[in-house]
Amino acid sequence: MRAAGLSEKAVAIAPGIHWVGALDPHLRSFDIILRTANGTTYNAYVVRGSEGVAVIDTVKENFSDDFFRRLESVAGYDEITTIVLNHLEPDHSGALPELLRRAPQARVYLSSRAQMMLKALLKPSGGGAPDYTPVTTGDEVDLGGRTLHFLHTPYLHWPDTQCTYVVEEGVLFSGDVFGCHFCGARLFNDSVGDFRFSFEYYYAHIMRPFREHILDAVSLIEPLELATIAPAHGPILRHLPREYLHRYRELATPRLYNEARSEKTLVIFYLSAYGNTRAMAEAIAAGAERIGGVRVSLYDLEGGDAEIFTDLVEEADGLAFGSPTINADAVKPIWDLLSSLTSVNIKGKLGVAFGSYGWSGEAVRLIEDRLRGLKMRVPVEGLRVKLVPDPGELDECGALGEQIARHLTGRIEERVIDMSELVG
Ligand code: FEO
Prior knowledge:
With about 425 residues, the protein is of the alpha/beta class. It has 2 domains: about 10-250, Ribonuclease Z/Hydroxyacylglutathione hydrolase-like (Metallo-beta-lactamase, Chain A, 4-Layer Sandwich); about 265-410, 3-Layer(aba) Sandwich (Rossmann fold), CATH 3.40.50. The chain is about 30% helix and about 20% strand. The protein has helices at about 65-70, 90-95, 95-100, 115-120, 195-205, 210-220, 240-250, 275-290, 310-315, 330-340, 365-375, 390-410, 420; strands spanning about 10-15, 15-20, 20-25, 30, 35, 40, 45-50, 55, 80-85, 105-110, 130-135, 140, 145-150, 160-165, 170-175, 230, 265-270, 295-300, 320, 350-355, 385. Strand 7 and strand 8 (about 55) form a beta hairpin. The radius of gyration is 26 Å and the shape is elongated.
C-alpha cells in the first residue's frame, strides 16, 4: 500500500544516512490486540561509509517491495557489507531472508540473545544462518567515517533487542523503543501531526512491563550526543530528541510515593454482593495491619473499572483478590482486572485469593490459578467462607492477613521443631 505524499525513494535523515522503510497507513490493529487508529510505519535505515554500507533492520514481509525499491535508490546489493538486526520480531525481519539472498556477502550483527531467533527465523528459507557476529555495549563496526556503536538494551520489548548509534552523526537506531504506531508520510516528528497519544499508548501497552529495563537503557543512552532518535515505528525524532528520552524516564520511574520507603504495600480488591466478601476483605486488612510494616488499601471493584487501578497494581508488593462465586466462577470485574495486568510487570508479586460462596465456591481456586499463570507468588492458600463469615471465620481472615504481611515483610514465623517429636 503506497501512501500519498511520500517519495518512492529513500529519504535522507542525516549525511550518509537514509530511511528505507515502508508506510502502513491502513493498519487498524497490531499484534491483534493493539489499536492503531493512524496505521504504522516499519522503519529501516541505510548508513553509508567510505568503506562499507550497513542496512539497519528491514520491514514486515508484505512491505518488502517498498523496502527494496528504496534501498536500491541509495545502495547496490554488492555494496552492502553489514546488516544490523536490532530486533527480530517479524515486522522488522520480514524482508531479511530476501535481503540475505540479494546481499550474501553481508555480515549480520545482532545481540547474543538474538542468535537462536535468527536461526529459527531462517529455517523456512532453508539457507542456514548467515555469517553473523553477536555484539554488546561498546562493540563497534567501522564503515569508514561512519561508526556503528552497539548498545545492549534487552527486553525492549523482547530479549533480543539492542540499539545502534552512529557516532559521527549522533543518530540512534533504537528499535521499537521510542517508537509508536503512527503513520505520517512526512516522517519526521516536527512535520507529522500530533502523535503524542500514540507515543504514550505505545509505551503503556508495549514497554511498560519492562520499565526496569527501560531505565537501564535510558541511563545508557543519556550520555550520548543525540541529534536524532530513529525508532523502528512511527516518526523519526529529530526535533528535541532528548525530550522523548526524558519522557521515557518519567514514564518508567515509579510514580506513587511511598513515604516510609521501608513499607510494603498490600492492595486488596474485592466485590461483594451481600457484604460477606467485604467483611472478609476488611478482616484480612486488619490482620495485615496488626503485623506492621505494611500499608494496606482496600478497593471495591464495583466503584471503578480495571484501568484506573493499573498504577496501584504496578507499585504494590502484594495483591489480594476477593470474589464471591457466581455460576461456578469469579465475577467479571475480577477477570477484567486480572486480564488488564498483562500491561504491567507483576511477576514475583505476592498474590492471594479469598471469597464467600453459596454452594460450590470455585472462585478462589480459579483466581489462584490465574495468579500463578501470571507468575505471581502464591505462598498462602486462599480462604473460602460459606455465606456469612462467623467470628471464628473472621479470625481466620485476620490470620490470613497476618500471614500475608509476614511474607511481604520477610518475617515468616519460624517453626520451632521439638526434636523429641522426631524420635520414634
Ligand atoms: Fe515492532 Fe517488537 O516489533
